[in-house]
Each structure stands twice: as C-alpha cells, then as structure tokens.
C-alpha cells in the first residue's frame, strides 16, 4: 500500500519563499513519487487560533490554494482542499484532547511564544493547536509530514497521542515523521530569524515582481563587506544563505572569498540574487494568472478535494468511534 503524506499551510496570506522552499517543494517531490498518496490543505481552522480578519479569511484560503496550484500541485495527483471543509478534523481533535494533559500543552515552546505575541488572546483554541494538528495528521494515518523544523515539537505531540491511542484502544496510527527539504529554514531579510508573514519586511512573497524583490533585498542589513571571518549570523549570513539556496554553493563560496579578500559589493550581490529569485518565481506567477482568471475552477478543486478527504476521514472516524466505545 502507498504511504500517506499530509501537510498544510495556515490561511494567513499568500505564500512566501520560506513556505515555498521549506514546504511546497517537498510537497511536489512527494506528489510525484508513486510510493505516496498526498494530501495538502490550507489550514483555515488553525488561522483562527490567533487574531484574524474574518473579512479576509476565505480570500486568504483561496490565495494559498492558488499558490499551491501555481507551484505545481496537481489535483489529479494530490488532494487539495481547506481544513474547515472536513469536519472530521475537529471531531477527532476533541477525542484526542482527552488523551493529553493541559500541562503538556502549556509547556510547549510554541505555545509560550504565541502567548508572548498575543497576551490578550490566549484562548483554548490556541492551547489546543497541537492537538488539532495531531488530528490533522492522524486522521489520514499519515506517515510523512513535510513541515519546517519549528514544527517538530508539534509532531512529537502527534506521535505521543498516536502511541497512547494505540496502546489504550488498539488503534493503528503510524508515527509520523518530518520530511526534510533542502530549504527547510529560509532566513529573514531583517537579519534575525526566519521568513515569516507575521514579521513585516522579513519575507518575499511568491507574487512579488522583480522590482519589489530588488527593493526588499536592498533593505537587508549588511556590514562593511569584508573581514577576517565570514559572519555566521545576522544580515550578511542570511544573504549568503539565500545565495546558496537560489544560486548554488559555488556562488556562495565566491562571495565568501570576496568577504575575506577585497570585499563584497553588496549592491551587486543583491541585484544578482534578485534576478535569480525572480527567475524561479516568474513561471509560478504566470501559472497563477490562469487560476486567478478562473475562480470557479479553484472552488471546484477545493470542493472536490474535500469530498475525497472526507472519504478517508470517515473511514478513520468509524474505526476510532468503534475502538473507544462510542454508540454505533
């Protein structure tokens, strides 16, 4: 039997380079592997665990789906839909929440980080975010999950809950493993951390044009351009990481040699990097126009994807209901 893959992106706006290199490229690799059955969703229920604009949520969801399709995800090969259209996610999440403690959830570093970001919005939904994520994965009995390394604590929660359910009730949930992509960590343009939609000025969107990319890169922090040691963190280190991701290791080494020698001309580096980034994004942007001009096709893909997902989800919930003793 084929192994199943599940992953998704929160519906908080259009995808950026971090999403593309850290997740979507992994989605494509697994989609084209005949050994796997792939399910990719836009996680709109996860999006409402922090403050959001209800007027833009549906639009954001469709935008992510269009980005998926433009990047090459194929509804003939993968199930592509929105999380909220498969109510079995929240059904299973409620059951799984009875098998893990509040203390365990409160100690997760991701929860503590969100509490700091949104001190006035510490809801039960936020606390239960990892349980819902566990349900997302276990509902499809997925064995591989293409996500960034920052999601590893949540994956461990899914593994813990799955093991506990198997031992206590005799279910057969697999232990999901993270699928690692080449660009699993795409650095921020601000010089600190990774690209994030929640940090203004840190990211390049997949829909950004050539001039926008140049402008964003021009603001990335640098130094004098030369020194006795190549920086390992900060703005320069992040730029060199982006060079490696889009231009290759040889070009990175070229710039490192310049840094240790006569010095880097950052204007030239940024201009060249902008060209390489846009070269990769241009065909994606052209394909996206096709879907922007046919919204009914996008809605049909989402709807049909939900129907396919619910068939699998229904089978799992039937098994779980029987195993835990709910009325038949």
Account of the protein in words:
The protein is mostly helical and 328 residues long. Helix 3 (57-71) packs across helix 13 and helix 10 (210-218) packs antiparallel against helix 13 (266-292). It contains 14 helices and five strands. The chain has two domains: 3-184 and 294-324, HUPs (Rossmann fold), CATH 3.40.50.620; 210-289, no CATH class.
* CATH homology superfamily name of the largest domain: HUPs
CATH architecture of the largest domain: 3-Layer(aba) Sandwich
Rounded average pLDDT: 95
The CATH topology of the largest domain turns out to be Rossmann fold
SSE pattern, N- to C-terminal: EHEHHEHHHHHEHEHHHHH
Fraction of residues in β-strands: 5-15%
Multimeric state = single chain
Q: What are the segments in which pLDDT stays under 50 over at least 5 consecutive residues?
A: none
Number of helices: 14
Total beta strand runs: 5
What global shape is seen? Answer: globular
Quick rundown:
By secondary structure, the protein is mainly alpha-helical. It is 55% helix and 8% strand. Helix 1 links the parallel strand 1 (3-10) and strand 2.
Spell out the key features of this protein.
two-stranded parallel ribbon; 5 strands; Rossmann fold; 2 domains; three-stranded parallel sheet; 328 residues; mainly alpha
Question: How is the topology of this model organized?
Answer:
Blueprint: E1 3-10, H1 17-31, E2 36-43, H2 44-47, H3 57-71, E3 78-82, H4 88-97, H5 102-106, H6 109-117, H7 124-127, H8 129-138, E4 144-145, H9 152-169, E5 177-178, H10 210-218, H11 235-247, H12 249-260, H13 266-292, H14 295-324
Parallel strand pairs: 1-2, 2-3, 4-5
Helix pairs in contact: 3-13, 4-8, 4-14, 8-9, 10-13, 11-12, 11-13
